[in-house]
Amino acid sequence: MSSPIALHTKLGPLTGASGDSHFTDSRAIAAYFGKRHDHVLRDIDRLTKNGFRRFAHDSVPTFDPSAYIQQQNGQTYRCYGITRSGFMLLAMGFQGAKATAFKCALIEAFKELEMKVAAQSMALADGNPQEAVRLWIEQYEQDQRAKLGDTPTI
User: Fold this and answer.
1) Of the candidates 3, 23, 2, 4, which has an alpha carbon nearest to the alpha carbon of residue 14?
2) Contacts 24+ apart (CB under 8 A), 140-148
3) How far apart are CA 25 and CA 124, in angstroms?
4) What is the Cα–Cα distance from 92 to 43, expressed in whole angstroms?
5) Can you give the C-alpha Rg of the chain in angstroms?
6) To the nearest 10°, the Cα dihedral for 25, 88, 23, 151?
7) Domain-by-domain residue ranges, the chain?
8) Global pTM exceeds 0.70
9) Each residue's pLDDT tens digit, 11-56
10) What's the distance, Cα to Cα, between the start and end of the chain in Å?
11) What are the CA-CA distances from residue 121 to residues 108, 109, 152 (Å)?
């Protein structure tokens, strides 16, 4: 089985979605960052051996052990299914140009979110609930487009 096709968003590889949980896998992460898969597995093993199991907001295991069959030799190898939160936790420990770009994109996204929340708060503080609702609807529609994969790729 070859590595799954990944949508490369500003915030990393996304291989699918289950309900509200977007996810990827350890092979897509290795390919995205140009890392060896066994090194990604080592990093995940370190996280789980240090006691990390799951984020409370994940509806599925953050790091879900799995396996795949390599077509070239027919052998079974281990991998992990990983939620978006798990991906972010893992990638924060990576180094290199791609990892730096990911971290910068995450900081930019967080800053953008802060500005939107501030704008909504100001609209409410100014006594303009219509503007606050308009901003909320705009954000909701943007979030829905992101869930459907209508996000910019890198």
Assistant:
1) 23
2) 147/17, 147/22
3) 41
4) 11
5) 18
6) -120
7) 1-94, 103-145
8) no
9) 456 555 555 455 788 998 999 899 999 999 999 999 988 878 788 8
10) 25
11) 20, 18, 28
